[in-house]
Predict the 3D structure of the following.
Amino acid sequence: MIDGEKFLERPIRWAMIGGGRGSQIGYIHRSAALRDNNFRLVAGAFDIDPERGRDFGEKCYVAPDRCYTDYKEMFAAEAKREDGIEAVSIATPNFTHYEIAKAALEAGLHVYCEKPMCFFSNEAQELERLAKEKNRIMFLSYGYCGHQMIEQARRMVASGDLGPIRILNMQFAHGAHNVAVEKKSAATAWRVDPKKAGLSYVLGDVGTHMLYLQEAIVPQLKIRRLMCSAQSFVEGRALEDNAMSIMEYESGAIGYIWSSCVNAGSEFGARFRIVGEKASIAWDAEHPNQLQYEVQGSMQGAMQRGAGYLYAEARADDRIGGGHPEGLFEAWSNLYTKFARAINKNEKGEPIDFWYPDVHAGAEGVKWVEKCVESAKNEGAWVTY
Ligand code: NAD
């Protein structure tokens, strides 16, 4: 159970880049990082507009002289302080992740980076190399994997409760951009602009979340080849707003990820069903406290978050006990606590004996998007992974 008891000698000095006023994802980063007192927000370059960022930072209790114009100024100034920042979260639009993450690692900081980590595999390899060379933790913001029932799913697969895995049927298909909302929303405009979003829109934006859930729940799966069909249904969009990807794995299993923002009527639409030889599990991000467990010829029912029958590793993520709902904020808090634990072990030179979305997971997401785009450009041809 997580009860906020300290495991660090003192909170980690932490900064944010992006995530300023009105941003979609800034508040949950702060809320999750600060929840268990493992981090203290001491600096930031919160906004593309420095003045707005400064004002925002001050209103988040950051000292005025540590609300910076941009990340370069922040890294240089903080490096000169005895009490300078030790870790940073990057919550800016996609096209900035690579250069900021690279600069952060070079500055010797531990990094919590939004997805996609970068656009191209050569950049991902460079970040992997740098994280290793500088011996820093690089953590990817795949927030859904912090839910307790995802840990339970992972343990069920590892324990053989489902039998060998045959089929992974996954989707992250919302309907929020079924018309050209980007004409009125800056936060949507960059997502459909190839210069700012990269090779893809929905594959990188939502599909990579499901890819990482596959990796987290069934870590032994290795993609052998994939095919992808991608479309842009809304007129004028240069990037795909819908994509269907099929993966064949070396084990003989098959997987499917539907990535979409034009699934009209779907509020969120992130869910999966994983089918083994003897049983299946199913989960829906809108109902994260339940994991459906269906044994062929036997029981079918929803396992409940916080219950005593869950695997110990899943129970360890519990914050309030069974019967009470936990949600995305708790899932993200679990991940930031793991980030702090990983930093702590790293600083002490101890091996990290738990899983988390690391720099390699970020690189896998980048590679998957590249391969999907390659297939889609070749009329959905199979692409060797
Ligand atoms: P947004 O457009 O709502 O906000 C972006 C913020 O970054 C704004 O405050 C903007 O002023 C600031 N910014 C932009 N460029 C900057 C720079 N160079 N320096 C400092 N600040 C800068 O975007 P968002 O929806 O919050 O998305 C941000 C990132 O988070 C994206 O990479 C997105 O893919 C990711 N995201 C992840 C999840 C998740 O579940 N992990 C969910 C939503 C968004």
